Amino acid sequence: MLRALAVGLIVVLLVIFAAHMAVPLVAGAITLSVGIWTFLIASVVAFCIMIVLAFVFTGIGLMIAGGAGFIWLLVTLVLFPFLLPILLPLFLVAMFISYVNKRRAKKELPKG
Predict the structure, then answer these.
(1) Does residue 60 fall inside a structural domain?
(2) Strand, helix or coil at 100?
(3) What is the domain count for the chain?
(4) Would you say 51 and 97 are in contact if contact means Cβ atoms under 8 Å apart?
(5) What pTM was computed for the model?
(6) Which pLDDT tens digit goes with each residue over 12-68?
(7) Can you give the residue range of the structural domain that contains 36?
């Protein structure tokens, strides 16, 4: 009886020790995963916002937003190459909107 109690106590202590050793590893993996997903979602959201802001900005503001978007695209593609099929079409849409706005702005300039 005493031997079974000692074995049970040792098993419980080993399980508690294993849980205390495993929790930091699991917490670190979860933290890393949440950080990566946050960056990925932020990338897609930033490009969508950049596309919307392309309708608002003109001139140098559009160039700054486009340059920031291009730099973000490069950094994201270096860190997460599997995002290329998601981010590249968004970037191409942003460039197309920029081109259309630029042509429209040239047509609206008063000739004098």
Answers:
(1) yes
(2) helix
(3) 1
(4) yes
(5) 0.51
(6) 888 888 888 877 777 777 888 888 888 888 888 888 887 787 777 777 777 787 788
(7) 2-107
